[in-house]
Amino acid sequence: MRVPIFIISIFFCTFSYAQEYIDIIVVKKSERILYAVKDDKIRKKYKIFLGKNPIGHKKMQGDKKTPEGYYYIDGKNAKSKFYLSLHTSYPNFHDKKIAEKKNLDPGNHIAIHGLPEISLLSQYLYDNSDWTDGCIALDNEDMKELWSMTHEGTQILIKP
């Protein structure tokens, strides 16, 4: 049986339109909110969890602080032990220079990620408190949505 061309066209049009990516992720640490922004408009906002020591800028490995400043997504990990993760460009040039002057290791591997795959219990263990080692965490459904809106190179602004 031959399928009419217009049916094939409708099928491919439905599933092949381009994903609309956001321009920038803005994190307001004091509000525990991550904003997904496109064309200067907030498209989505998400509740987040930060490092166990959230106040102030990350200065060194192990300080449990979430960095502050301009970064970008420099990798996406679909096999993260924290569901999905968006790796950030931390430390940036400025972070490295400050750490170098103070003879400190600025650390690395700061990401925006979901919850660990422990089970549903993890949803309760990590709820309503900061628990990461300096990363930004979202619940897994929110992380899945954010993941689909970002690409390598998406800008990130992390504010106090």
Describe the model.
With 160 residues, this protein is an alpha+beta fold. It has a single domain (20-159), classed as L,D-transpeptidase catalytic domain-like. Helices cover 22% and strands 26% of the residues. It has four helices and eight strands; from the N terminus they run H-E-E-E-E-E-H-E-H-E-H-E. The protein has helices at residues 5-16, 93-101, 121-125, 140-149; strands spanning 24-28, 33-38, 41-47, 69-77, 85-88, 111-113, 136-137, 155-159. An eight-stranded mixed β-sheet has the order 3-2-1-8-4-5-6-7, covered by helices on one side. Strand 6, helix 3 and strand 7 form a beta-alpha-beta unit. It is globular, with a radius of gyration of 19 Å. The N and C termini lie far apart (63 Å). The relative contact order is 0.24.
Mind sketching the topology for me?
Elements: H1 5-16, E1 24-28, E2 33-38, E3 41-47, E4 69-77, E5 85-88, H2 93-101, E6 111-113, H3 121-125, E7 136-137, H4 140-149, E8 155-159
Parallel strand pairs: 1-8, 6-7
Antiparallel strand pairs: 1-2, 2-3, 4-5, 4-8, 5-6
